[in-house]
Amino acid sequence: MTPLLERRGRGRPDKGKEVSPGGSEIHRHKDPKKRAWTPPAAVGVFAEEVCSRFEELFPERETFVYHEIVSDLVHIDVNVMRPGPEDDCFVIFTTGMSDLPMTLPDDLKDRDDLRYAELFMFLPRSWNPGGPGTLGSEMRHEDSWPIEAIKFLARFPHEYGTWLCGGHTIPNGEGYEPILEGSEMSGFLLLHFGEDYEIDAKDGRRVTAYMVAPVTRAETEYKLEYGTDALVERFVERDVQLVTDMYRGSAV
Questions:
Q1: What is the pLDDT of residues 161-203, one digit of tens each?
Q2: Is residue 33 part of a domain?
Q3: How many domains would you assign to the chain?
Q4: CB 78 within 8 A of CB 94
Q5: Spatial distance between the Cα atoms of 218 and 94, rounded to a whole number of angstroms
Q6: Distance of alpha carbon 174 from its chain centroid, rounded?
């Protein structure tokens, strides 16, 4: 399915751009032109610093990595932090998305702090991620989808020549296809949690980690109508948790 990228509006949109009632610019991305496989020019540029920050935020956790075997454009690894005895969730995060800068729109060309990003998710203790050496083909889709989704999103801005940031929503295709059978979740919302998730690298560049939250079609459309802040308020009112629940009811 062709993904749609919607971003929160910043000021008055350029004439001719598609804009939602809530002021968000809507970007429709066609499948990229066919090109030759392109090996990554660099691997793990900020991986050590990103891993160190997550180890500080979530200490004393057993961690293993799903290493990408064959990479195109960027080498995306998914780091899995198992819950400790008193923790209620897994934490997964990417490294490699920040190996290349994202392509910012013209009105944000000077925002170097937005060029580099990684992604993370909170997943319930009931999730079964397997372990080191496990192949995606050996996992049930109910367990493998977070790995597949976060890798797709991490590669998305580089493959489509665009960018991702807090407040962006990415529906699962134009038809809002369910991510899992029996689930209303049909897209993703990116959230920015503040300075703790901003990593200032030794070379002066900033890498920001954004949380990936599955959302329903109604929630995505509500966000388009009223904005990200309004949707977050509905999440708070309905006590939607940060730990992913693919079978929760819609907050809208």
A1: 999 999 999 999 999 999 999 999 999 999 999 999 999 999 9
A2: no
A3: 1
A4: yes
A5: 28
A6: 18
